[in-house]
Amino acid sequence: MTRHASTLEDLNRIIHALYEAAVLPELWPAALETMGDGLGGCALGMTIQANEGATEPLALARLDADCMEVMFRQYANSRTNAMVAAMSELPTAVAAARQTVITDPDYFGSGLYNEVFRPQDLAHAAVACAFRSRDYFVPLGIFRRGTQAEFGGHEHALLKLLLPHLRRALQIYLRVDSLRSQQDATDTTLDRLPFGLVFFDSAGRVWKLNRPAEAIMAEKDGLVIQNGELRAASTTENKELRTLILSAAAVDPGTGPSSGDAMAISRPSLKRSLSILIVPLPASNVDVGLNRPCAVAFVADAARNTSPSEDTVMRLLCLTSTEAKVACMLVAGLTIEEIAQRLGNKPSTVRVHVKTIFGKTDTSRQSDLVRAILNSVAALSSR
Question: In the chain, which end has fewer C-beta atoms inside a 10 angstrom radius, N or C?
Fold first, then answer.
């Protein structure tokens, strides 16, 4: 005999599982399984249906993976699945018996039932639109085996209590997922910058780095991270660096934007010094007491041999493939002779290419050409 959620403790356990899944998406299958337990041993499935027809699986519980693969391949959206079409029209967070949205003859005669649910012996179903926004909706299917009783008043009463919480949990999840996507896009953009970024919290501890900063720290040549702090190799420079970081992190955001403080960091390898600019970051009232970045250090390594994408330079400056190669090698700091050796040409041939590049870019000196390229979006394509 199946056991239903019958106590406040059972109900709270299900609600807790739903809200846990809202912030930890990997818990959605377990949350649906807990919900299915409360409904007497049901199988459940949720998808995200975009209004233009795209479908993304969200979570499944007690549903056969092979059968569901058939569903996602052949019956994924409202155009191919009458139940999904019906759920798109239901009031949000209100459960309905399957029979009210699709008749027995239509359901039991459909490919959806015979190819997906019949092999799993899932004869009974209830449906709901768990969440709806301007751009998408989340259909929820709840299924029982043929050996179990159909959904009755107890299950519908329980769903009436649970579905508003599921709707709210989905709203939180989709909002958090959107923020995660925005953060991923921001991180990808920061990683494309040609200089390092080191973010600090209010105590001056390192909060986050972009990939160029990680590469600079990995060299351990002038700057390192020790015990969560950015440290300079020179004791004197380290003291100054620490003072600048703490000062920037402690700036009252209400004082307005700051141009920051800069210093040079010498390197044990005797390569050209690293240059660093430390700037306070703005905050808002909602940030009070939260772990957030309060300052950022921009770290440039003039000795780092970076070169923009030849294809990008070729397209931006309307150069030939060979001219783009020459231009990128000039940006990387190679001499005419070194470029000629790499290309297998004479230096005089390379000089002809350089002259042609000057004409196409309206420059007259190598330094002007390099500056023009590094000040363009080509710098973002550096390898």
Answer: N
- Give CA–CA dist 158/14, Å, rounded: 11
Residue 338 belongs to domain spanning: 310-381
Q: What are the pLDDT digits (tens) for 172-210? A: 999 999 999 999 999 998 988 888 999 999 899 999 999
Angle at which helix 366-374 crosses helix 321-331, to 10 degrees, equals 90
pLDDT at residue 6, rounded to an integer: 60
Per-residue DSSP letter, 229: E
Q: How many domains does the chain have?
A: 3
Q: How many CB atoms lie within 10 A of CB 144?
A: 23
Indicate the pTM of the whole model: 0.72
In sequence order, what DSSP letters do the residues of 293-338 get, joined into one string?
--EEEEEEETTS-----HHHHHHHHT--HHHHHHHHHHHTT--HHH
Residue type, 207: W
The answer as to whether 326 is a domain residue is yes
Q: For residue range 329-356, what is the model confidence (pLDDT) as tens digits?
A: 888 788 999 999 999 989 999 999 999 9
Q: Look at residue 84 and tell me if it is in a domain.
A: yes
User: What CATH number is attached to the domain comprising 205?
Assistant: 3.30.450.20
Q: Is the pLDDT of residue 369 over 50?
A: yes
pLDDT band at 382 (very low <50, low <70, confident <90, very high): low
Residue 355 lies inside a defined structural domain of this protein: yes
User: Which pLDDT score is estimated for 285?
Assistant: 44
CB neighbours of 181 closer than 8 A, spacing ≥ 6? Answer: none
Q: Are residues 175 and 93 in the same domain?
A: yes
Neighbour tally for 163: CB within 10 Å: 21
Number of alpha carbons in the 13 Å side-chain half-sphere of residue 46: 27
